[in-house]
Design goal:
Elements lengths: L5 H7 L6 H13 L4 H10 L6 H20 L8 E11 L2 E10 L4 E7 L4 H15 L4 E4 L3 H11 L7 E4 L5 H14 L8 H18 L13 H7 L3
Parallel strand pairs: 1-4, 4-5
Antiparallel strand pairs: 1-2, 2-3
Helix pairs in contact: 2-4, 2-8, 3-4, 4-8, 5-6, 7-8
Length: 233
């Protein structure tokens, strides 16, 4: 019998449903454009009575643990990055989700920030470099804030990162935004910044698994769903 991830086991002590039900609901929520009400109805059709607010609570508690487990199994990414930010509504106001992909479309990293400026962009690059190593090249659009952030980082490096500013070359990351935005649309905005950060990380996590960015476990050729469930082990 497989042992649960210790952090997952601690979370489950306070959740009074079978693990397979909890993981299925959480995965569906971050994998597909479904609302919490949709999930409540879908589980009811399967004979499981669960309130939509309970599903939300499961997601908020479990996703940080699963994301941490995924970080340990994430495949290395390329050294040529395409970086851009997209808009996310939180508490009725627009916030900014910074994201980047490599030239093959693999997600580098992501970071939700309240403001769109040099400080936010620099924090994103610092986080991405800490997690993935420094890139050789970063392609950005004509944003002065992103350029200023990269120049500030280069000022502290022996080997500067090559900076390219090209709207055309950044189409790859702009198209990748759509997968995230399509999933967030049924959520009708986030109520708190904390919940937004956690749920967006879950959506990004599932998106990376679908793109094949998780190192295989001993069981080869697992489906994206089974790879997600394996993070709990």
């Amino acid at each position: 019998m497989k042992m649960l991830n210790l952090a997952v086991a601690r979370v489950l002590k306070r959740l009074h449903y079978p693990l397979d039900v909890i993981l299925t609901c959480v995965r569906w929520y971050v994998a597909y454009p479904l609302s919490l009400r949709n999930l409540e109805e879908m589980m009811a059709e399967r004979g499981v009575s669960v309130d939509h607010s309970t599903v939300h609570r499961w997601a908020v508690k479990l996703l940080p643990v699963l994301e941490k487990a995924f970080r340990l199994r994430k495949r290395p990414v390329g050294k040529s990055w395409r970086m851009d930010e997209t808009y996310i509504r939180v508490k009725g106001e627009w916030r900014y989700l910074y994201r980047a992909v490599d030239k093959y479309g693999n997600t580098i990293d992501f970071l939700l920030r309240a403001h769109r400026d040099k400080t936010a962009a620099r924090r994103y690059f610092e986080k991405s470099i800490a997690q993935n190593g420094a890139p050789e090249t970063v392609t950005i659009d004509k944003s002065g804030a992103n350029l200023a952030a990269l120049e500030a980082i280069n000022a502290e490096r022996e080997t500067p990162i090559k900076i390219r500013q090209s709207k055309y070359l950044n189409n790859l990351v702009e198209q990748d935004h759509r997968s995230i935005k399509r999933r967030t649309r049924p959520m009708l905005g986030f109520k708190t910044f904390r919940c937004a950060r956690i749920l967006l990380a879950g959506i990004e996590l599932m998106h990376m698994i679908v793109k094949g960015q998780m190192k295989p476990a001993r069981e080869a050729h697992l489906s994206a769903a089974d790879q997600f469930y394996n993070l709990a082990i």
